[in-house]
Structure formats: C-alpha cells, structure tokens
Amino acid sequence: DTAVSQTPKYLVTQMGNDKSIKCEQNLGHDTMYWYKQDSKKFLKIMFSYNNKELIINETVPNRFSPKSPDKAHLNLHINSLELGDSAVYFCASSLSDRGRDYGYTFGSGTRLTVV
Amino acid sequence: KQEVTQIPAALSVPEGENLVLNCSFTDSAIYNLQWFRQDPGKGLTSLLLIQSSQREQTSGRLNASLDKSSGRSTLYIAASQPGDSATYLCAVSPMEYGNKLVFGAGTILRVKS
To answer: What secondary structure letter does DSSP report for A83?
Structure first.
C-alpha cells in the first residue's frame, strides 16, 4: 500500500520522559511534515522538511527535535515531556516545487497522552 | 498572517439533503486549497485539491469551488448519507510561506438516517 505510516498509534507516558514517533512515506514525495492537533481539534504545523532539510520550524519548543535520515522518513523526538504535550501528532508528505506543494497525504496520527 | 474560517462549526441534516460547507481565507495569495475529511479518532483523508488556477473540482457526490479573489471556497455534498458524518477541514497552502497548510477549525457534520 502506498501511504504515510506512523508509529506508534497510541503513546502513554509519564511527565519528564523522552519519546519518539516515527514516520515513513512510500509515495515518492520530497517534503514531509509534522502537525499537531490539540484538544480543540485545531491542526497546526510544527515542522516541514524538504529533501532532508528543515524548511519550517513553527515556534516549537526546543524539546521537540525532528530528524530526517532520508526523504522517506521524518521522526519526531520529544524530550522532557510535559502535560501540555498531550495531543494527536500527524505526519504528512507532499510533492513540492520551490515551496509550492501538490496536495498532502496524512498519516493516521499518534495520540500522545502525558500523565 | 493567513487565517482560515469555516462556517458552520456544526451541521445536522437528514439523510438525502444536499448541503454546503463554507470556508474563507484572509490572504488570496495561495498555491491551492484542499478539503479533508476526518473521522473520530482517525487521520485525515484528502477529498479534493483545487489549485489556485482552478475554479472547481468534483469527485462523486462532492464538488468544491474556489473563488480566490474573494477568499472563499465551498464544499457541496449531494444526497448526503449517514456515512458522510465526519469533520470536514479546509486548508490553504499560502504562497508567503510555502511548504505548509493553514487549517480551519472544521465543520462537524452529522447526517441522520
């Protein structure tokens, strides 16, 4: 199946822990993203990477560090987790040309709960 | 700063009705506009993508229009079915930033059988 897949689907962890979410796409897209959906269901971009290079870092705390080992993967590592980090995190990908994208495909999301 | 507004916030209709969801955006300088569907606890499914040079796109019972100059898009759903119940999200790709989507808050649709 061609898709954007992210793991794990659910993540429950204690405050102060460090955790990672993995994302992979096999669509041949060159740009990948992390979006956060808060408790009010509002979706907002966190990061975007184009060909492994960071393009957008949208006022996200330094505790969040994305890593893109290649064009098909974009992982999100979160240090010192806080209660406010609880949300659903979506990975997405698109084909783009100098900033212009040609439609997004989203993963199914990772529901992070910090207790 | 680009902002996207969706009206109504929630909509409940009987099965079989035709309905229109509205989306407005403050900056007309966009590459494209995309409509998504999100089912409870699930990811986003892309429904329709309209490039800035296009006026509308159709897929089955769905038709989306784009009026870039006035900053508006509508999603028309014909002959609604209970399976259409979901949250519908509108998102634009701003030229100013590139490589990101700005989302509206969504319209929660419930189609009653």
So the answer is: G
